[in-house]
Amino acid sequence: MDLIRDVADWLSTDWGNRLGFFFPLVLLGLLGLYMLWLIIGYLRVSQIGVADKRTEQPVVALPAGEGTTAAEHPRGVPYCAFDQLQYPVGARFCTQCERDLTLDCTNCGATLSAGDASCYRCGTRTGVGDVAQLS
Questions:
Q1: I need a labelling partner for 18 at 20 to 30 A (CA). Which of 29, 34, 55, 56 fits?
Q2: What is the pTM of this model?
Q3: HSE on the CB side for 47, CA within 13 Å?
């Protein structure tokens, strides 16, 4: 009986009191980190658009030369400026470095993000929305 009373006193006064106070806070912090991990994972997957059936699309290296500049990239075709790779229409991320792809407007030549639906300068549609509807 004394053992039970001593354990109850220890829980109510000494380390048990501190443990009872901090344990819910630690549990809440771990739960918050887990929820943050789930949300970031969901946002990443929703931005990439994981499909059930993936088909490999050709990736072409852009022509390299000493006279090659950003203005010489093909208009309306997504490309990675870092890796110098050209992707098929509808691609949004580089498969090598995972950066956002860019494309040049077919009308005015402005550099756009591959996910933009239209040009910010002239308003020409890029066709990204049309490709997304086909999927």
A1: 34
A2: 0.47
A3: 14
Domain check: are 44 and 75 in the same one?
A: no
**What residue type is assigned to position 41 of the chain?**
G
Sequence-distant (6+) residues with CB within 8 A of 103 are 73, 75, 76, 77, 78, 79, 111, 112, 113, 114, 126
Q: Which of 34-38, 53-57, 71-75 is predicted least confidently?
A: 53-57
Residues with Cβ within 8 Å of residue 81, at least 6 apart in sequence: 70, 73, 102
**Which range of residues forms the domain containing residue 80?**
55-135
pLDDT category at 62 given cuts 50, 70, 90 is: low
Token pair of 62, please? 């852009």
Minimal CA–CA distance to 40: which of 51, 52, 32, 30?
32
Same domain, 74 and 114: yes
Count of structural domains, the chain = 2
* 35 and 68 share one domain: no
Per the model's pLDDT, the better-predicted residue between 98 and 57 turns out to be: 98
Q: How far is CA 95 from the centre of its chain?
A: 12
